[in-house]
Write a structure and sequence with these properties.
Blueprint (H helix, E strand, L loop, with lengths): L1 E12 L12 E12 L17 H16 L2 E5 L3 H8 L6 E4 L5 H13 L11 E10 L2 E6 L3
The structure holds the ligand Nc1nc2c(c(=O)[nH]1)N=C([C@H](O)[C@H](O)COP(=O)(O)OP(=O)(O)OP(=O)(O)O)CN2 and zinc ion.
Length: 148
């Protein structure tokens, strides 16, 4: 069985080497879709009975590890020196340094890496993160999927 939880957040970014508009500072209303696989828990009387994982718990973990960190932050490639320097000049600015250029593909992959250890098999139901889909706009998204 697979379940998917969607969360949204706002963040700024730029793609420094982009040949067109995306090299300028701008922002998106990102949407993050987290797909988990596992067996449906069969535990009469348990709060998770009949679920792969409670959607509320999926959300709480995604907020803690991604959304609360990236929401209203500027996501910046750590080697984008002019921008890193500019953001450092702003006291208390919420900036997230990324080891990669913050494209939809790289952000989806980064989120997958960060979340893979988070969704653990607490009920012995083989819970696993299968896919992180990151929408940069309603028309553009990237999927980071667990390798076969
Ligand atoms: N493969 C990728 N291509 C692009 C990325 C990316 O992350 N991966 N990012 C951008 C820009 O950052 C921008 O967010 C996308 O802009 P755009 O192509 O204009 O997308 P829209 O949905 O706004 O386009 P409409 O034409 O208005 O639908 C660029 N490319
Ligand atoms: Zn963009």
């Amino acid at each position: 069985m697979q379940i998917t939880r969607r969360l949204e957040f706002d963040a700024g970014h730029r793609i420094p080497d982009h040949k067109s508009q995306c090299r300028h500072l701008h922002g998106h209303r990102y949407a993050l879709e987290i797909t988990l696989s596992g067996e449906v828990i069969q535990l009469d009387g348990d709060a998770a009975n009949g679920m792969v994982m409670d959607f509320a718990e999926v959300k709480a973990l995604a907020k803690e590890h991604i959304v609360d960190r990236w929401d209203h932050a500027f996501l910046v490639f750590e080697r984008d020196e002019p921008l890193v320097s500019f953001l450092r000049s702003m006291p208390d600015h919420k900036t997230v340094l990324m080891p990669c250029v913050p494209t939809a593909e790289n952000l989806a992959q980064r989120a997958f890496q960060l979340l893979d250890e988070v969704y653990r098999d607490t009920y012995g139901n083989h819970l696993r993160l299968q896919r992180v889909r990151l929408y940069e706009t309603p028309n553009c998204w990237a999927d980071a999927v667990r390798p076969e």
